[in-house]
Every structure is written in structure tokens, then in C-alpha cells.
Amino acid sequence: MGLLTGKKGVILGLVNDYSIAWGITEKLHAEGAELAFTFLPDKDPASPKMERRVRKLVEPLGAKHIIPCDVQKDEDLDKAFAAIHEGLGNIDFVVHSIAYAPIDDLKGDVHACSREGFKVSMDISVYSLLAVVHRAQKIMNDGGSIITLTYLGGEKVIPGYNIMGLCKSALESAVEYLAAELGQRKIRVNAISAGPIRTLSSSAVKGIDLMLAMYDTMSPMRQNVTAEDVGKSAVYLLSDLSTGVTGETLHVDSGYHVMGAPPLDAFPAKSSS
With contact defined as beta carbons under 8 Å apart, do 170 and 119 qualify? Predict the structure, then answer.
């Protein structure tokens, strides 16, 4: 018996085995959860690379429900959650692991972000959580749990994170409002603020190598986190171990977020003359 035996849920945003969503998937599966997955449909239906990639990962886990869904399309969201309900019945949890910004807007200064780039970034990275929750709560058992993924750049300025920092700030606020709205049904909504992990998405962030090095140097634990670390915390938030936790942003970052300055041993001391 695992912590999630008998629980059913959906994971949105799995891309490959480097994804944080994959680290979460592995831990939820190990704890006995029954999982459904969505994937972003390829522009060329004749070459469904994304679907094949996701299926290759999750079918060995026994996943039977692998559903196309473009979160920018309401009709896709409606069809996806109808298919999830038909396949799984009522669900107990949702993992929202979706974020995107056009590369030019992500790499450029915030003040230079295009109007369209801002709209797309907020639509996919923030509004998608609202749209997903709106549909998921209709088929969710009371006492369910919803998590999304954020980063410290939503709280503090992280050079290079740029427009995505604004998106994560809005996402964390959305978590609090959603938690308040769904609390009477004992449905919990939380965020995991993970430290930097080398993924397909993070590779587009300017300065990711410096971010990784800083966590090794500055965090209290002097190390980066892994997708496995995030997966373990996801199990906690999605299981009955956290029934009193909602509206929370849980930092899984080796404690980096508490530091106001580098540790004294982070840099060699200057020799006195």
C-alpha cells in the first residue's frame, strides 16, 4: 500500500524524462497513484512526436489515458477533462507543470517585452492554471489536491528570468485565490517553488548555468535539488499527509530562498597586506 493507492489524478506538462513533471510522475506512480496525462498536440498531426515521446515514458507505467490538450484552446480543455472523467471517473489530484514565454521576450529585458509576448506568456503560464482548475474541480472528489510549479524569480529578481518572473508572481497569487475559493470543499491548492533544474524549459533561461552554480555555493545545503526531490514533495502535497496545507508555496531549493547574502565560506578570503 502506497500513500496514493486508490487515488487518481492527471499530470499536465510532461515533456520528457528530464522534466520536473517526470520526477513527480515517478514518485506518484511508486506510491500507487493511477495517472492520466495530457500532451501538447504537434502542429503536424502526421508526425506526432510529442505524443510518441510521452507514450514511450508513461505506457510502461501502465498509463492508459494519454490525451491531447492545448491549454490555449478552451475546446481542447473541455474535451480533455471530459475524456479524463470518462476514463478515470472522479479524480483526486492535478499536477499543473506548464509554463512558456516566447524566446525573444524571455531573453530580453522585461521593459522590452512585446505586448503579444506578454499575453502569450501569461496565458500559458498563469491563465492555464485557472482554466484547468475550473474544469478539474467539477470532477474532483472533495478533499482533492492541486499543485503547480513556480520558482523564486516570482518573489525576487533573478537576472535572466525576466518575463517569466512576472508570470510566476501572478501564478503564486492565483494559487492563494484558488485555495480560498475551493477550501470549503477541502480541495487544496499549493505551489512548489523548485530550485533550478536543467530541463528543456530551463535551458532557454539566460544564465541558467550561473543559477545552478550559485545554488551549489550559496544554499545552506550547498547543493542543487533534483527532480526526484521535487517529486517527493509533490507526494506530500498530493497525499493525505498534507490535509492542513493550502495556499502555500513550498520551497524545495536546498534552503536557497532564506539566504540574504553568500555564506562566509562561499568565496576565498582576501589576504591582508
Answer: no
Looking at residue 268, its pLDDT comes to 67
What pairing do the DSSP bridges indicate for beta strands 91-96 and 140-150?
parallel
Is 236 among the catalytic positions? no
pLDDT digits (tens, 9 = 90+) for 20-40: 999 999 999 999 999 999 999
Domain of residue 246 covers 8-252
Name the catalytic one among 151, 215, 236, 256. Answer: 151
- Exposed, middle or buried, 10 (CB in 10 Å: 0-12/13-18/19+)? buried
* Residue 202 confidence class, pLDDT cut points 50, 70, 90: low
Residue 271 lies in a domain: no
| Residue 3 within any structural domain of the chain | no
Q: Which residues are annotated as a binding site?
A: 13, 19-20, 70-71, 98, 101, 168, 197-201
- Count of domains observed in the chain: 1
What is the value of pTM for the model shown? 0.93
Q: Look at residue 9 in the predicted model and tell me its pLDDT.
A: 98
CATH of the domain at 95: 3.40.50.720
> Which residues have a Cβ under 8 Å from the Cβ of 250 and sit 6 or more positions away?
190, 191, 192, 193, 233, 237
Domain for residue 266, yes or no?
no
Tell me if residue 177 is catalytic: no
